[in-house]
Amino acid sequence: MAVQGRSWSSFIRRRRRDEGSSPSVLAERSRPVETPPLDIAPNDPIVAYFQDSSGVVDIEHLDLDSPALAAMKAASVRMVLPLVSQGELIGLLNLGPRLSQQEYSADDRALLNNLATQTAPAVRVAQLVRQQQAEAQARERIDQELRVARLIQQTLLPKRLPEMAGWQLAAHYQPARAVGGDFYDFLELSDGRLGLVVGDVTDKGVPAALVMASTRSVLRAAASRLESPGEVLERVNDLVYPDIPPNMFITCMYAILDPDMGKLVYANAGHDLPYHRHGTDVAELRARGMPLGLMPGMSYEEKETTLAPGDTVLFYSDGLVEAHDPRRQMFSFGRLQRLIAEHEQTAVPLVSYLLHELEKFTGAAWEQEDDITLVTLQRSEASMTTGTARQEDGNASSGDDRLLLTEFRIPSELGNERIAMRQVAEAVKDLDLPQKRVDKLKTAVAEATMNAMEHGNKFRPEVPVLVRVFASRASLSVGITDQGGAPSDVHAQTPDLEAKLANLQTARGWGLFLIENMVDELHVTSDEHTHTVELVINLGGEDNGS
Amino acid sequence: MAVRQLEVHVRQQPRVAIVDLHGEINSFAEAALQQAYAEAEAWNPEVILLNFEHVDYINSTGIALIVSMLAKARASRRRLLASGLSEHYVEIFEITRLADFMSVFSTEAQALREVPAAT
Q1: pLDDT band at residue A34, thresholds of 50, 70 and 90?
Q2: Which of A50, A153, B66, B113 is the most exposed place for a label (fewest CB within 10 A)?
Q3: Which residues of A touch B26 (CB under 8 A)?
């Protein structure tokens, strides 16, 4: 316990001077008399005096310019026994006059000094225990508040992602320990339109969570009545402003997607600008507007963009761009924009890719500073790319002149392997392969896709399987990628049909065996995020028609 | 994606139960196949003929379901026959060696001609 900076309290126990010796008086005098606590300021010179003293201090003859000393004398304290543990003054034992009215003897002083030696460590232990109990209670109180804040947020975040044909949505919310005020929401509007909300309440903990909850409700109500994102934000601002605490506000992006037209109309209340990726170009979606709750009567600029097949929009919160690395450098908007552009060449979903890059940037020991929210909206390119071959530019494993015939993603739901079969067959129809080869390829694609959906993506519909079909003069290959990152040493063992018929083995276990027997080559590659099965059919060889 | 559920009808002929299959044989087909097999077996036929003429998709789970049916048939000393498989699935029956344990015929009529010989 440090004496510096603390205020001291000393309880003084003494007996009455006028206590007599009659039995009744003896009974009375056996009861200690308590005086009010004596506060000793940390800068009172008597603190240093006690700390340096080697034993009992005679108060009566002490002469110091000390308010505490004056108070002690006024309270008839005669002797003070400083309790010092490991060089720190941890308490005082104050004594009034002896009952006998005699002075304290040398034996009394020796006894008191012995007492101090034994008492000080015990008092110190008691103080530490009490301090730890107080700290534990404080921590528990904080943890309880954080649990409440987290509960509020997680209760109100969407439980599932909306499903729209030709569109893929992904969302990731990662609360900081202190729980910020991030939120996102999806609103299924009339005519099949979809409202997308990403917001951030300043402040943390329960207050931010409560403001988030009320803002979400107000926004939902406004969005159900008003068509325009700008008008919705204007309405929300006017409703939120009167009740929001003065030191808080909300940044919020609200966009409405027309999935049939690919049109995205949006307005922004001071939130980080979303990024729109088209091909390898990445642009900010800008729209002016003040954060919600700062000033009444605000209006919000409304903008519009069209998402082409293959385009992606990333909505996010500042927890990502304001994350710091160990040298205190920020992740930054520039880095985010560059990563989105680079992501074009990878097979990992954008959200996973960004989180991986964030982890690389911050290091493993990073304590997350703020909530991180990522929401991606992607228009599927399957319908566009089928049959529209484009030159593959660089990462073709064969290094030859292969073309990308098609690339598409399918949700990891049982039965969707039929989509993969159909689209791959459609993509290769111009190659004039014998029907027998096409049938084999379809079966291999179906089995590999089922494995990817089940074992890699655990049948999570929001985690898609990526299918890419390449063709060169020498071969046709289909890459099927999941997010499992499974070990690459996977080869089929011939199932033992006799054992299966005798019920000595499960009847299952045919998938990989079928794949290996349907194609000329099977390559499996994995990294820490993805697992890719490449099915290869040799073209123009002797067995082309087999 | 909407999955075509397997529809199954069982016909009885002397010494043979014919199981007509319509649709896809995958994990969604398990209950229908089990029910059809139980229905066919209830007549205690010597032969059960699986008619695949209207089946356009069999995946590895479907193969496993057929293996299970074959195991049941062998356990009760019944012959299991297959007809109407496309060329592609005939090849898969050969690769998986299912064709070694259940005779495969192009048509139902060809399969039924085998029934007397099987008894």
Answers
A1: low
A2: B113
A3: 414-415
Residue B42 contacts residue B10 (beta carbons within 8 Å): no
Chain B residues with CB under 8 Å of A467 CB are none
Q: Is residue B65 part of a domain?
A: yes
Q: Choose the mutation target among B55, B58, B67, B102 for the interface with A, i.e. most A CBs under 10 Å.
A: B67
A497 and B1 in contact by Cβ < 8 A?
Answer: no
Per-residue model confidence (pLDDT) at position A344: 66
pLDDT tops 70 at residue A75: yes
Structural domain contains residue B13: yes
ipTM given for this complex = 0.92
B-proximal residues of A, 379-438, CB under 8 Å: 413-419, 436
B44 assigned to some structural domain? yes
**Where are the strands (E) in A123-174, listed by range?**
167-174
Phi (first) and psi of residue B68, to 5 degrees: -65, -40
Domain ranges of chain A: 8-130, 157-380, 383-538
- What is the pLDDT at residue B40? 93
pLDDT at position A142, please? 79
B64/A419 CB distance under 8 A: no
Residue B100 sits in a domain whose CATH number is 3.30.750.24
Q: What is the mean pLDDT of residues A81-94?
A: 84
CA A486 vs CA A70, A397, B60: distances in Å: 78, 20, 21
Q: What is the CATH number of domain A157-380?
A: 3.60.40.10
Contact A415 B97 (CB under 8 A): no
The CATH number given to A8-130 is 3.30.450
Burial of A144 (0-12, 13-18, 19+ CB in 10 A): exposed
How many domains is chain B built from?
Answer: 1
Same-fold call for A8-130 versus A157-380: no
Tokens 């909850």 sit at which residue? A213
Nearest chain B CA: its distance from A138 CA (Å): 53
CB nearest B1 (choices: A418, A503, A506): A418
What count of other Cβ atoms lies within 10 Å of the Cβ of residue A177? 12
A492 interfaces chain B, CB cutoff of 8 Å? no
A447 Cβ under 8 Å from any chain B Cβ:
yes
Range of the structural domain that residue B86 is part of = 7-118
What superfamily does domain A383-538 belong to in CATH?
A: Histidine kinase-like ATPase, C-terminal domain (3.30.565.10)
Three-class SS state of B18:
strand
Question: How far is B63 from B3, CA to CA, in rounded Å?
Answer: 17
Which stretches of chain B are assigned E, i.e. beta strand? 7-13, 16-25, 47-58, 79-83, 103-105
What per-residue confidence (pLDDT) applies to A305?
Answer: 94
Pick the most confident of A151-155, A279-283, A488-492, A527-531: A279-283
Average pLDDT of chain A, as a whole number: 81
Scanning A450-479 for CB atoms below 8 A from B yields: 450
User: And the tokens for A396?
Assistant: 């073709």
* Helix/strand/coil for A175: coil
Of B59, B70, B96, the CB nearest to A450: B59
CA distance B16 to chain A (A): 22
